[in-house]
User: Fold this.
Amino acid sequence: MKIQTRSGNIYSYNKQTGEIVGGDISVQLPMWRFAPFVYFESLPEVDSFILGLTEQCNLRCTYCCYSGNYANKRVHNTSSMDSGGVDEIFAFIDSFASRRPIKFFIYGGEPLLNYNLVEYVIDKARKRWNNDVSFTVSTNGTTLTKERIDRLVVNNVILAVSIDGTESFHDRYRVDALGNGSYSKLYEALSYIKSTYPEYTKKMSLIMTLASFDKIAEIAEAWHNDEILHDMAPTMMNSLVPNFTQGVDRADYEEVKEFYNTLLDTYEKHQDWVVLRKLFESCVAYWKERPIFEPMSAVPMATCLPNNTKLYIDTNLQIGVCEKMSDNYRIGSIKDGIDWNKANDIVRNYYNRRVTRCKNCYAVRMCNMCLTAIEYTDEQWDVLCHNEQVYTRVFMYVFCEMAERGLIK
Assistant:
């Protein structure tokens, strides 16, 4: 794989070693040698548990993967856990997790619709594990009253708040069942947090999900000019889950590269725009932090199992690999524990497909394709692989271009 920067310099990526070198070294390299699949019967790294306390939500975000528009995804409903279910989960964790501290990620739906249960989780976990436990609550922020914020901050609970830009951008997608925007209530909560607990804002997470990145420069400018948000950088910037029921476009390298070139020009002039800074930090993270390998070393299979650090537990007390996996791929239950045959079947399926498909791919060491891909057909994998290769190459271009422009800190 090679790229050419605006200055005319050519850089090549050696897929075997991970090195980026000057000039064109486009030579045919041997096929990948993957580390073999090994049957596993333990998950020794798990220390994080995502609790899906409720599947209810007071919003109907137009892009939501639980909207009913995605194949193999649940839809909004009234299912919720209760305190008895939480007690069962805690007993399971005590017998299962060997690592400390234990990290809880409280998830929904909108978990604060079941606020009393959120408090129950925090109080019971504190009594059971003392200070050897931490909490993050994922929320749309619309039910964050001052009293709830005070309670959560005092208990050192981290809030992961969904915000897709300033009002005109956020309210385009994040609406309630009547189509009303949700920004004003969220913004009121953020204003209270920043004025009352300014140090806490450095710990909380702001999660931005964008249906399209076309307006990202406008979002970045509006964010920068907002008196509350301007110095609060998004923690994560997500694109949408691929939705093949509505079609997934194949990316074009030149078009995507030129889009990022235009953004780079804007960022070069406005390096204090925290949204663009976060975007480019995310683009080049894999390239900045990539390991260098011995030539012809075996490639570890890029999958969470069995090296994952987290498990997801839904309202029915079924266990999933993570919150992104559909209900069709549960690997056990709180009552019966992990079904190791089922867990291994999922990983083996993924492994066999990747060994066949990825043996010549230049992007394999940077690939973001995860275990969720097992639900896709071969034709859908073709699109996902193509787009993964395009963005891997574009982000290498961005990395080299930023380095030449002196934009990498």
